[in-house]
Design a protein that fits this description.
The chain has 4 helices and 8 strands, in the order αββαββαβαβββ. The chain is α+β, with helices and mostly antiparallel strands. It has a domain at 63-162 and 226-233: 2-Layer Sandwich (Alpha-Beta Plaits). Strand 3 and strand 4 form a beta hairpin. The relative contact order is 0.21. Pfam families: SIMPL.
Length: 249
């Protein structure tokens, strides 16, 4: 009887040991999988190539962005203001009759003028300025500047050149296409040198398609003249774009 009990206990112990060993094996497998998961994820992250592509599209300018105005000096503020109003009205009427775009007032000033000779401040009169800005096609701006001076403008602050809004929008799209192609070509060049193959794009970032503001010509004092039309040449405008791609390989 004791022998049978002892034998039964031995079998039970062996069964328990077997179950414990089996459980330990399962735990080791789970731990191994859990430990390798971050390594696999890290390997995938490390197999991402980041490239930044640049694109540019150059287009001809078609519009002139002009800022001009009337500057008057006089003995009294009222005298100056009345003269500015008279001349400015004539200039604005001319501009409207010529169909300019985006006409708006950009500045109104009226301030005293002082003489500081002999280390003394002495009021000598007043200076007033009224300026406006507008857009007009390049082929018309030279003649219009001359007409504006005859109408009463006494200063031309700036003349810049830009393409139309539609032309700029189309150029921005083309610059983005070129930037994307440039990024892909960079990736292919690098991966080819390493005997690797480009796979899918996992992230795209458009860094923007920018257009530089109209570049103004040097401001000059306007003078009444009966000479030939002022020559104006617009030139070109460059639209730039940048795109960042993250590509798996």
């Amino acid at each position: 009887m004791n022998k049978e009990l002892l034998s039964s206990q031995k079998l039970s112990s062996r069964w328990l040991l077997g179950k414990q060993a089996q459980a330990m094996a399962i735990l080791l497998i789970i731990f191994s999988i859990a430990s390798s998961a971050p390594a696999i994820a890290q390997e995938k992250i490390l197999r991402i190539l980041t490239v930044i592509g640049q694109g540019q599209e150059t287009i001809p300018t078609s519009l002139a962005q002009v800022q001009l105005g009337v500057e008057v000096k006089g003995q009294t503020a009222q005298e100056v203001q009345q003269e500015i109003a008279k001349r400015s009205s004539a200039v604005v009427e001319l501009l409207r009759s010529r169909g300019v775009e985006k006409l708006q007032t950009t500045g109104i000033q009226l301030q005293p003028a002082y003489d500081y000779s002999n280390n003394q401040q002495r009021l000598v009169g007043y200076v007033g300025v009224n300026t406006v800005s507008f857009r007009i096609s390049n082929d018309k701006v030279g003649n219009l500047l001359d007409e504006a001076v005859k109408a009463g403008a006494t200063r031309i602050d700036s003349v810049g050149f830009t393409a139309s809004d539609n032309a700029i929008a189309a150029a921005q799209k083309q610059a983005l296409r070129l930037a994307t192609e440039d990024a892909q070509q960079q990736a292919d060049t690098v991966l080819s040198a390493l005997n690797l193959t480009r796979q899918e794009v996992v992230n795209i970032q458009v860094n923007g398609a920018s257009t530089p503001p109209p570049q103004p010509l040097m401001a000059r004092e306007a003078a009444r003249t009966d000479s030939a039309t002022t020559p104006v040449i617009g030139g070109e405008q460059t639209v730039s774009a940048s795109v960042t791609l993250q590509i798996r390989y």
